[in-house]
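Repro:
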Amino acid sequence: MYIGDGTFLLNPMELITALQEQLKVTVVVIDNHGFQVIRRLQMWRTGHAFGNELRARGGAADGSTGADDGPRLEGEYLPVDIAAIARGMGARAWNAATQDEVRAALREARAETRSCVIVCEVEKHRYVPGADTWWDVAPAEVSRSEVTQTLRSEYERDRAELQRFHY
């Protein structure tokens, strides 16, 4: 199975349960340093990202932590060692940085009797193409951000044109 790093960190009990029940699973963790799908959604609907990446917290250059939270939430990426976490739970684990390393880890995982985790770091902020579908996720109705206000206007236009449900 394939999961993201955020999903893995939110619910490591699934791996513990597999190990406890002696179930052989191989989990490929896509490590993009946070909840990039949610970050993408935030950028699409608000024009701003807020706290979805696994980053250290800092302060703005002037030390403020006011309404503009951008710099405060954009510190260095945390060096989370997911493979070490998996090994600490009792699984066999690999970090795979190349296609050949992924292939080798998959071969070794097939031969392994216990559950395995293969961690693949991927490029941050690189997304699959859009599905060209309309998703009813509304930007804030009230915001001081001109970007969010513009996105709200576009949302209302699209909702009137594309939504198939009636309120």
